[in-house]
Amino acid sequence: MRNEIKKTIEASRRVLADCALENGGIIAANPDKSYYPHTAKDYHYVWPRDAAYICVAAKILKIKNIQEPYFNWLVNRPEDFKKQGLLFGNYSTNGRLNNPSFQPDQAGATLWAIYDFYKDNLAAAQKKQELLVRRLADGLCADWKGKYFFNNTTDLWEESYRKTSTKMENNHTYSLAACARGLILASKIIKNEAWEKAAAEMIAKINEAYNKEKKYFVRNHGKIDDYNIDASLLGLVYPFEIIKADDQRMVNTILAIEKNIVEDGGLHRYQFDYYDGEGSAEEGAGAWPLLNFWLAIYFCIKGDKKKAVKYYDWVLDKIDKDYFIPEQIFSDFRQGIKPLAWSHAMFVVASRYLGYL
């Protein structure tokens, strides 16, 4: 194993541990640390989505005492979660709601993380996490109306101007994949036909989101489709296993992603993205290392290790010798959020797929 991989694995252990708090919350980045840039936005919040990926990576690294304290934090802390059964944008570490947008993928990703942690002993999952699993799965199903969610939803990039509508049926494709897989896995822990039925309905809508003329899955499908190419569609293959990596529809989608939003080797979130993590967003967004690692995972699953290494190595060649992986990599002076725990989590998963862990 190359030295820079070993060093980045060591840094990943530190970053993930630094983001796991005493009360069980897992934050996206820890600005209390001296290594955190003073120009970056404050990410001292719990995003359940980020925390789910961090839990999976922590298990790979054999970091203990992160997952179950976090699951307990979810049961007891998030504002209104006991009453509504829904997870929203992000939360302060004491559980106060900070971003009130409804992001259903977070519940789906959390169910995936619970299953991953207990997959060798599902009886323990039911014994220890039945309340959380039921609350998450029942909450999703209560809001799901067979073809769409009742409440306005926002996808994983959480831009407020890209909400689904209450006036017409439409869905974020990544969100449906997360929710469908989460419900399927929840039913493996606690058998429930209603959860399985909702998952099947969501998968049907995902299949409808493939546009035969454009030859890719659209990121939002309904009466009006959003044709902007979006890297989050990688989630259809990993981790949510809705579409096979060699399914021609997915192959076509990856071709569209590589053609349109890979710039100089780095994968961007989507076309016309301007968010830079420093507040101004005037200069435009950078490439996201976690997406390069996500694309590497896809190519590993597809059996193309050469391409996987290409996208993986691009990040390692760009990061500083502190081996902290940022949220974005820019071609200018900006640092943005550094390090981002989700970036390190995806590095860990990609390293495992490539055989480095």
Question: What key phrases describe this protein's structure?
Answer:
7% strand; 357 residues; mainly alpha; 12 helices; globular; two-stranded antiparallel sheet
Describe this structure as you would to a colleague.
The protein is mainly α and 357 residues long. The chain has twelve helices and eight strands. A two-stranded antiparallel ribbon has the order 1-2. Strands 3-6 form a two-stranded antiparallel ribbon. It has a two-stranded antiparallel sheet with strand order 4-5. Helix 2 packs parallel to helix 5 and helix 10 (289-302) runs parallel beside helix 12 (341-353). The longest helix is centred in the middle third of the chain and has 22 residues, at 122-143. The chain is globular and about 50 Å long. The mean pLDDT is 96.
Task: Describe this structure in a few short sentences.
It contains twelve helices and eight strands. It has helices at residues 3-19, 48-60, 67-76, 81-84, 105-118, 122-143, 173-189, 193-208, 248-261, 289-302, 305-318, 341-353; strands spanning 88-91, 97-102, 170-172, 210-211, 216-217, 220-222, 262-263, 266-267.
Give the % helix. Answer: 40-55%
**Strand order in space, largest sheet:** 1-2
**Average pLDDT across residues?**
96
**CA-CA gap between termini:** 9 Å
The biggest sheet, with number of strands, parallel, antiparallel or mixed sense and barrel status, is: 2 strands, antiparallel
Q: Assign the structural class, choosing from mainly alpha, mainly beta, alpha/beta, alpha+beta, or little secondary structure.
A: mainly alpha
Count, helices: 12
Q: Which runs of at least 5 residues are low in confidence (pLDDT < 50)?
A: none
| Gyration radius, in Å | 19 Å
Question: Order of SSEs, N→C?
Answer: HHHHEEHHEHHEEEHEEHHH
Proportion in β-strands: 5-15%
**Number of beta strands:** 8
Shape: globular
